[in-house]
Amino acid sequence: MPSTNRQIVLVRRPDGAVEQSCFEQTVGPIPVPGPGEALIRNRLIAIDPAIRGWLNARGSGYMPGVELGHVVRASGVGEVVESNLENYPVGTIVTAMTSWQDYTIITTDPTRPFEFATPVAPNVTPLEAATVFSHSGWTAYIGVHRILDVRPDDTVLVTAGASLVGSLAGQLARRAGARVISTASSAAKCAWCVDDLGFEACIDYRADDLDQGLKEHFPKGISKLFDNVGGTTLDTALRRIGHGACIALCGSISTDDTEEPYLLANHDRLMSRRATMCGFNTIDHLDLVPEIVSNYRAWLDDGSLIYRANISRGLESAPAALVSLYGGSGIGKSVIELE
Ligand SMILES: NC(=O)c1ccc[n+]([C@@H]2O[C@H](COP(=O)([O-])OP(=O)(O)OC[C@H]3O[C@@H](n4cnc5c(N)ncnc54)[C@H](OP(=O)(O)O)[C@@H]3O)[C@@H](O)[C@H]2O)c1
User: Fold this and answer.
1) Are 257 and 17 in contact (CB under 8 A)?
2) Model-level pTM greater than 0.85?
3) pLDDT score, position 58
4) Does residue 329 have its Cβ closer than 6 Å to ligand 1?
5) 103, 114, 122, 237: which one has the fewest Cβ atoms less than 10 Å from its Cβ?
6) Is residue 1 scored above 80 in pLDDT?
């Protein structure tokens, strides 16, 4: 067990693409939990696209930016090693904002959202808690069922189909009986989408012409669009939406690192095709979580829902994992496993 607390702190804000030189590792004492607090030793840290937004001074719109010199914020899974917290004995596994460090102080005080922890159910593994049963995992279900209300006669485009959210969303849309086509950045990711996730097709947006691919696969237009990417991908897809289409804006990973807002050229299609475009954030739909958890558990157990994790070992691998999120390498949710 580490006798000090290593942290990876933000030393420079990225100007455009995030680089490893934005971060430095520091070593300090292990924090001591006060009354109503517990100390967790971090086991898994998720490398979520949201982290990129928190590196900007202005934050991500719903959460403030990380201060320079402060530990990088991230969600993850840890084990209670010292506790002054009722119902959280030593050994309890929790999800929390672990951040990029060995140890984190947690509470159950809702007025301290960055330290708020939730116990992981005994029938959920730590890796499942960091992936499918995370805020990001729930996002797929909320987008498919509550925002898009996918039906058997839908033709659905899921952008970033090999991401955690995209891969789950595509599987849920298929389960609802719809035709599903995705985008991804490589032949290997597209093969996973088609061969393992069961999507009808996947357009490799780096190698192929996206507009041509959409024209070919959606001869009557896209009826539901689950967009994780934004920017030119969303703009191109808008050209191919069908009459009465519904578009769920889930994420904009292609423009997360640009200061200038992306100006949509094809927004007029929303009007001419009587389409609806709607942004959503999972934090507004937490009432669905019990239903999601119960369904995900059943579907993972019977093998009808699958996911993949791309695990890197050691806290020091976190900056490289964040950088490579934008480089197209590695299939599956990027997760750091602490030794
Ligand atoms: N609305 C909400 O409440 C909510 C909650 C959680 C997550 N999200 C959003 O959901 C999306 C997916 O999150 P996740 O956790 O599932 O991601 P993830 O598993 O970490 O994967 C990120 C994906 O982004 C794609 N990507 C990276 N750079 C790109 C670029 N320039 N253009 C197009 N695609 C790019 C990569 O796929 P390729 O290599 O195939 O490009 C990668 O698979 C993100 O936009 C995230 O912000 C929204």
Assistant:
1) yes
2) yes
3) 86
4) no
5) 122
6) no
Average pLDDT, the chain: 96
Confirm or reject CATH 1.10.10.10 for domain 135-283, answering yes or no. Answer: no
Q: 83-134: per-residue pLDDT in tens?
A: 999 999 999 999 999 999 999 999 999 899 899 999 999 999 999 999 999 9
Look at residue 61 and tell me whether its pLDDT is greater than 80: no
Nearest to 245 by CA among 282, 214, 283, 275: 275
- Position 190: which residue type? C
CATH topology of domain 5-131+308-337: Quinone Oxidoreductase; Chain A, domain 1 (3.90.180)
Which atom of ligand 1 has the smallest separation from the CA of 281? 3
Domain boundaries, the chain: 5-131+308-337, 135-283
Express as a percent the part of the chain with pLDDT over 90.
Answer: 93
**Averaged pLDDT for residues 188-203:** 98
Could you check whether 5-131+308-337 and 135-283 share the same CATH topology?
no
CA of 36 to the centre of ligand 1 (A): 36
CA of 167 to the centre of ligand 1 (A): 10
